[in-house]
């Protein structure tokens, strides 16, 4: 027979277990500032960190990106330091693009594959010096990177927890940095990076981002993170700076035609079914591959698939009739043959179009682009209505903003 004390202990244990599942384990270095600004209470788990879907309103947060400047915490993004005399050769082996062409003080967007040529992830490679790199990615790859480093004079270390990161994006982003006293930041062209003094240390600022807008990313040791946040927020007050969550950023990246691992494609390590994996050409990353480049992971399989026409899929941009977003809609040819799936969709306030990214089975989306339709289920007064809307294959990005590449950028 259970006593009152036993029952109370069991209840306490049950509540503790439930609390464990409700509470995310990690806070980023900027968590105190995010918590203070959070009005929606809309949080999610980003790689074990407590991250906001939105802070004060996802619609207005999106417009903060496009009309002023937005501050987004990218600290949970996986970051690796790659350093040593063979660092260039190592990075050139494991990633698709030619790292010998990446000069110190530059960044490039790249991807990496397994031996069968299927994409493990995509990300950005920062060349900090002749022998030091930073690789940023969506997923964690440390065991694979360490295995790949055998035989190279190189050290690979994850620095996700020790390096805080911020994305500052939008038309007044440069004005904010200038007001914050980062002298010389106007010299940064797209994909440039440089170090700037901050208190008793330095901050690395790159002209990069995930919005297709004028933008920068800032990386700093976690002990100086809060003072950097405060410096930017104070300097940016007259330039409309606002902190934002992921939903707004995701809308901006879709307008820019950018893809997200395990959202727009399934990475090779996460794929359970063999037909879910994708080669670079199948997700729009074929431009990264230089057939003249020496050995890199997956090279033989990728070039063989091209030569023998073994590619199975294509990632395309779609423009869809109407204004109802087609997220996760099935794509049909002639309304009866299922040929693909929409992975991201929205009504674009900037493009004034109903846009989407979709993965289609070849030859659809390539040589066959006519008579494509999407099946949308729209909620109308407590009832789902099935809509069949015509879709047209269109180029990405869906919007192209001159201010993204303007040099020097406008100072508002």
From TrEMBL:
Ranges for domain GCVT N-terminal come to 57-290
Q: Name one GO molecular function term.
A: transferase activity
Which keywords does UniProt give here? Answer: Transferase
Q: Give the top-rank taxon of the lineage listed in the UniProt record for this protein.
A: Bacteria
Record-annotated Aminomethyltransferase C-terminal domain positions: 315-400
Annotated InterPro entries: GcvT/YgfZ/DmdA, GcvT/YgfZ_C, GcvT_C, GCVT_N, TrmE/GcvT-like
Pfam families on file: GCV_T, GCV_T_C
PANTHER family the UniProt entry points to: AMINOMETHYLTRANSFERASE, AMINOMETHYLTRANSFERASE, MITOCHONDRIAL
Know the name of this protein? Aminomethyl transferase family protein
Q: What is the lineage of its organism?
A: Bacteria, Pseudomonadati, Pseudomonadota, Alphaproteobacteria, Hyphomicrobiales
């Amino acid at each position: 027979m259970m006593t009152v004390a036993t029952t109370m202990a069991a209840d306490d244990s049950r509540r503790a277990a439930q609390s464990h599942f409700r509470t995310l384990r990690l806070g980023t270095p900027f968590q105190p500032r995010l918590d203070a600004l959070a009005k929606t209470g809309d949080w999610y788990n980003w790689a074990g960190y407590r991250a906001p879907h939105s802070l004060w309103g996802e619609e207005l947060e999106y417009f903060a990106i496009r009309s002023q400047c937005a501050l987004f915490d990218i600290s949970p993004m996986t970051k690796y330091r790659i350093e040593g005399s063979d660092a260039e050769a190592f990075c050139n082996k494991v990633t698709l693009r030619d790292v010998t062409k990446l000069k110190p003080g530059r960044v490039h967007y790249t991807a990496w594959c397994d031996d069968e040529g299927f994409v493990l992830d995509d990300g950005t490679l920062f060349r900090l010096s002749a022998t030091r790199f930073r690789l940023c990615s969506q997923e964690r790859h440390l065991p694979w990177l360490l295995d790949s480093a055998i035989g190279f004079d190189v050290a690979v270390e994850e620095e996700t927890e020790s390096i805080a990161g911020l994305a500052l994006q939008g038309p007044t982003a440069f004005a904010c940095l200038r007001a914050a006293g980062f002298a010389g930041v106007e010299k940064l062209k797209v994909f440039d990076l440089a170090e700037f003094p901050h208190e008793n240390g330095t901050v690395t600022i790159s002209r990069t981002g995930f919005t297709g807008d004028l933008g920068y990313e800032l990386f700093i040791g976690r002990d100086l993170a809060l003072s950097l946040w405060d410096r930017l927020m104070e300097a940016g007050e007259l330039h409309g700076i606002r902190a934002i969550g992921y939903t707004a950023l995701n809308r901006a990246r879709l307008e820019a035609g950018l893809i997200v691992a395990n959202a727009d494609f399934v990475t090779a390590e996460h794929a359970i079914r063999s037909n879910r994996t994708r080669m670079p050409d199948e997700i729009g990353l074929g431009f990264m591959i230089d057939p003249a480049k020496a050995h890199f992971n997956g090279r033989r399989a990728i070039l063989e698939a091209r030569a023998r026409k073994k590619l199975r899929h294509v990632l395309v941009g779609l423009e869809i009739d109407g204004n109802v977003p087609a997220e996760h809609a099935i794509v049909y040819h002639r309304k009866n043959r299922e040929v693909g799936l929409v992975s991201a969709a929205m009504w674009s306030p900037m493009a004034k179009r109903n846009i989407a990214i979709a993965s289609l089975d070849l030859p659809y989306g390539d040589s066959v682009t006519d008579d494509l339709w999407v099946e949308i289920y729209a909620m109308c007064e407590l009832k789902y209505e099935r809509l069949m809307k015509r879709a047209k294959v269109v180029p990405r990005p869906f919007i192209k903003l001159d201010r993204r590449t303007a040099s020097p950028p406008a100072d508002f």
